[in-house]
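Input (Glycosyltransferase family 32 protein):
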Amino acid sequence: MIRYLLLLTNGGVYSDVDTRPIMHMSQWATGVENWTPALGPRYPVRMIVGIEGDLHIWRNWESFFQSIGLIKCGRHRPLQFTQWTIAAQASHPILIDTVRRIVDTSTLAHAWNITHRRQIEALEAANWRARAAKVMQRKKPWDGDTKGQKLSVQEWTGPAAFTDAVLSYLLATAGVREKDLYGLDHPVQIGDVIVLPVNGFNPTDQDISTTESRSIHMFRGSWRKPPSESKRPKL
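Output:
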């Protein structure tokens, strides 16, 4: 949440501590194809986002099996944007919408907690302790399924919520749909947003030297339990 609020109020570049630059930030908006010439002259760039994963690009056997449904997708969206690196102007509508989505979900979760607690108290007051115990064990919304995935941190405040906000904005302002971005292999500008392909902010070791790569994520995962090993070599 803090990354969105900082960018929303101050603008600039947010990047996780376990990322490393490949290209200077002043060059991130170069070599970009304008996808929305019908909107008039090229808009000033107000946000740069990168695709984290696209099931329509087979980078290895795992992604291939995910794309045909043989194994479960490790991401919350078939096309998902990174939020470990974001460049944005202050007050950008995508950031406003992301925060709105998080607040709405938090409000619903809070309301569920209140209702759940009142049900338990009412049953206990009626001396129906067995039923109260069953209600107490009822799964919370964030333990259940939402759009096929657990309502985890990634779904609630992470790349899933951010991806939904980005795609909604691109559709509303430029008529660009999610499927239009499938298989994207070069940077494009859509209105005031630059969209980088997967190797923009999430390159493989082989992609590091390509002209599309801007930065790399080392996947330290210090927030996980236990902390995971890095998937990247030290640069």
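The chain has one domain: 2-217.
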